[in-house]
Amino acid sequence: MGxxxxxxxxxxxxxxxxxxxxxxxxxxxxxxxxDERIQPATFVxxxxxxxxxxxxxxxxxxxxxxVLDARLxxxxxxxxxxxxxxxxxxxxxLNAPWNESLPELRDGELVAYCGSGVTATVVLHxxxxxxxxxxxxxxxxxxxxxxxxxxxxxx
Length: 155
Prior knowledge:
It is a single chain. This protein has 5 helices and 4 strands. It has helices at 3-13, 55-61, 73-77, 120-129, 140-144, and strands at 66-69, 94-95, 110-113, 134-136. The chain has a 4-stranded parallel beta sheet with strand order 2-1-3-4, with helices on one face. Strand 3, helix 4 and strand 4 (134-136) form a beta-alpha-beta unit. Helix 1 (3-13) crosses helix 4. The longest helix is centred in the N-terminal third of the chain and has 11 residues, at 3-13. The two termini are 26 Å apart. 29% of the residues are buried.
């Protein structure tokens, strides 16, 4: 549930752009068996500063950004559930569930979040495949809901 996309995002975040997610359901070739001979290489991580957004900036700019909530619709609507202590969403966020196709999106700067920062990377990966890039709000709902100074929208 998003592990491969999270790794893809982390590798890119730390400067390794030569990475991809392989969906085995679409693979048409043969899979190798046995020992692999891989040449060792050195990777020096260099963290990007343009692919994330922090809560304060998101709170300040949420009306001008295209904010995508990767959680399931019931959590996006703010229905009571055992996971969220403060149900709801970031005001103005569109629901883009991680396990569904992307909704039709207008032009603009994209930000994705979810419950804890993992399944939002599925949405970011889909955006990337569609030729668009977005930022991750790594604190996601688990941070936002804890902050009483941040607004919440329900319904």
